[in-house]
User: Which sequence fits this backbone?
């Protein structure tokens, strides 16, 4: 049974977001989460002298690396080999799956433990391993929960943020043999997962983790976690496979430090996570533990297409999740509505670019353009501007509904005919005023609309153009 | 399914690298030079204080000691208070004995050497570096510090010499002078016990790694 949805469902954003609004447990979970991340991030940032200067340093690193991606990826590859590991290249998600399957089959692997990896979500790696008869266990608690629920993650750093504790309890009761043990406290739930997963860690043939950064200068992968599951996955099995993507590379450890300083603060509001680990190859001769094979699989999946183009800045994303946490749309509909692995503002840019704009045409429109995403992004990525460009592209490629294109064309025509435009705005003003004062419209026809909104219009002042004309006239008079 | 991994790899690699060439590549030198970066600076005099203040935010505990001879007794005390059994996995007894050849481990502690295998409640390690900026300890995989000891036992006790505390993350890397080709397999920067907030954003200690982290801070007698 595949543990994630088999294909991209971004085309159903509208339907899924309507469903999300009516889903009481989802709304309860989202309400519970609302503000938690925001508050912690704000506190973490207030705690340092100048977060702005931390951001600047981190952006310097990323700008420089993106400008020299080929050089640093090449250097990384050379140094991994020097350390006794292997680098593999995958243009497409299918290729990533094939490479990993090949490595697993060569070692006759039956069981795999996995640390959190968004790159593997892009490839639906679990489904492909399971189809080959390999037993896969997600070990990050959030990922484990959604694996039991057979759902994709709904947040890039808190995959089960959409689940209430009651739902988690129900999932554990169904999957584990609990007898009459109760699991109504969060501590009991965490302990239950800890004891269930212990043996999986010890038994696994292959461990697969993601990487937050690839360090070119030392040929290492840096993994940032709080649970320690990534380290157990990287240490106990005979084979460690790292899944990463081309933009994860940074020049050296000094560069990585600059990014670390903004990563956890933006993500969970911690100065640093419990575990920041650097893995640089298979076990050395006098090591007492560690895998004897070390592989890094580097995925492109359309990223190289973003270089040199209007969406290049998106390659600087460090997957901190701050833009999700601060997005009014994300926090109302949750991550699943977005239909693919990357939700929220960053997902609204990435999904169209990595899959197809045609299939995800609603995502660039799922934004109020409030600009908070760009404001909180540690990499200063201009997400609203990119969404605007994608909307533009949709218009050009005729992906928007005919009616909205016609209306826009009509509006354009109207704005070019001053007198007519003046007259039309006056008419609209009159119509709206009537609607707001007319109780039948207000209490019957547009009842629901008016329940949630107001239309404050000033009778005296009239339309913008009327006011504008008045001011112009009076200044002209004043000058005379 | 069988693919020729090497060939597959060569083709993909070429495909990806072809696309990575910058259009404006002409302006970029063959070996790019990363711009210089600023690091947060800390007062060298007060490194221990900074370390302890940052460290307290991480839900770890500490005791200061002025001699390594105290370690066995303190491990016993900790085990009696917190652990479910008296099994300790450690590979640093030689290091401790070097300073104090007659060092004795009190009963009922049972010492295990080698990697941890999940049967020991306590792991005992000797930190290679401490970082003041974050209140972290750093453990480098080696015969003395197999990585499993840092993660499998329920409780992790780590000795840190005050003199090994560096101001910031960058100074830590510098101190380790790492070079590709002779890298330790794993370097763990550890800041507090294992935790998760994956259920209803409520922080819970002891997710998969240690439930508690206890530092024995070795301070040279003044
Ligand atoms: S776009 Fe910025 S804020 Fe959003 S996940 Fe990426 S780095 Fe974080």
Assistant:
């Amino acid at each position: 049974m595949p543990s994630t949805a088999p294909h991209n469902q971004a085309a159903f954003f509208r339907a899924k977001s309507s469903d999300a609004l009516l889903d009481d447990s989802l709304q309860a979970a989202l309400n519970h989460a609302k503000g938690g991340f925001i508050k912690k991030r704000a506190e973490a940032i207030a705690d340092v002298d100048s977060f702005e200067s931390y951001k600047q340093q981190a952006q310097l690193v990323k700008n420089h690396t993106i400008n020299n991606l080929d050089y640093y990826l090449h250097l990384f590859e050379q140094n991994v080999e020097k350390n006794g590991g292997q680098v593999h290249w995958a243009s497409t998600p299918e290729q990533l799956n094939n490479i990993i399957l090949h490595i697993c089959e060569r070692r006759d692997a039956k069981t795999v433990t996995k640390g959190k990896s968004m790159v593997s979500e892009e490839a639906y790696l679990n489904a492909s391993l399971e189809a080959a008869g390999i037993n896969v266990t997600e070990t990050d608690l959030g990922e484990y929960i959604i694996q039991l629920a057979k759902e994709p993650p709904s947040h890039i750093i808190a995959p089960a943020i959409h689940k209430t504790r009651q739902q988690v309890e129900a999932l554990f009761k169904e999957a584990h043999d609990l007898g009459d043990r109760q699991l109504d406290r969060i501590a009991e739930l965490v302990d239950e997962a800890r004891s269930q997963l212990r043996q999986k860690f010890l038994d696994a043939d292959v461990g697969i983790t993601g990487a937050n950064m690839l360090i070119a200068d030392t040929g290492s992968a840096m993994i940032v976690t709080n649970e320690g599951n990534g380290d157990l996955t990287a240490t106990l099995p005979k084979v460690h496979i790292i899944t990463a993507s081309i933009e994860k590379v940074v020049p050296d450890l000094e560069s990585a430090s600059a990014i670390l300083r903004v990563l956890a603060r933006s993500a969970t509001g911690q100065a640093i996570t419990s575990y920041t680990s650097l893995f640089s190859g298979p076990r050395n001769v006098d090591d007492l533990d560690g895998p004897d094979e070390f592989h890094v699989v580097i995925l492109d999946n359309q990223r190289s297409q973003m270089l040199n183009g209007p969406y290049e800045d998106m390659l600087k994303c460090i997957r901190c999740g701050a833009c999700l946490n601060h997005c009014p749309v994300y926090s109302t509909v949750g991550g699943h509505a977005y239909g693919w692995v990357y939700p929220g503002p960053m997902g609204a840019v990435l999904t169209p670019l990595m899959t197809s704009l045609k299939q995800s045409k609603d995502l660039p429109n799922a934004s109020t353009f409030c600009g908070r995403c760009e404001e909180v992004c540690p990499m200063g990525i201009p997400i609203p501007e990119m969404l605007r460009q994608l909307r533009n592209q949709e218009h050009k490629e005729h992906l928007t509904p005919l009616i909205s294109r016609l209306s826009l064309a009509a509006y354009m025509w109207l704005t070019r005919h001053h007198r007519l435009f003046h007259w039309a705005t006056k008419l609209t003003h009159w119509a709206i005023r009537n609607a707001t004062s007319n109780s039948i419209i207000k209490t019957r026809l547009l009842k629901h609309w008016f329940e949630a909104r107001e239309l404050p219009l000033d009778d005296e002042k009239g339309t913008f153009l009327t006011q504008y004309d008045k001011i112009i006239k009076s200044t002209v008079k004043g000058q005379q | 399914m069988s693919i020729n991994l090497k060939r597959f790899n060569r083709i993909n690699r070429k495909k990806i690298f072809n696309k990575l060439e910058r259009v404006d590549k002409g302006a970029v030198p063959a070996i790019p030079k990363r711009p210089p970066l600023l690091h947060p600076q800390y007062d060298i005099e007060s490194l221990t204080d900074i370390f302890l203040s940052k460290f307290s935010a991480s839900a770890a505990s500490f005791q200061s000691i002025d001699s390594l001879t105290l370690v066995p007794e303190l491990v016993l005390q900790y085990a009696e208070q917190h652990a479910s059994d008296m099994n300790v996995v450690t590979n640093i007894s030689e290091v401790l004995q070097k300073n104090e050849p007659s060092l004795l481990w009190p009963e009922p502690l049972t010492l295990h050497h080698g990697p941890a295998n999940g049967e020991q409640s306590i792991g005992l390690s000797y930190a290679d570096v401490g970082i003041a900026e974050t209140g972290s300890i750093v453990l480098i995989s080696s015969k003395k510090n197999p990585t499993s000891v840092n993660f499998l036992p329920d409780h992790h006790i780590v000795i840190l010499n005050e003199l090994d505390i560096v101001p910031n993350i960058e100074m830590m890397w510098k101190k380790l002078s790492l070079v590709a080709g002779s890298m330790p397999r794993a370097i763990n920067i550890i800041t507090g016990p294992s935790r998760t907030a994956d259920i209803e954003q409520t922080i819970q200690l002891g997710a998969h790694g240690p439930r508690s982290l206890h530092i024995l801070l070795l301070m040279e007698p003044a």
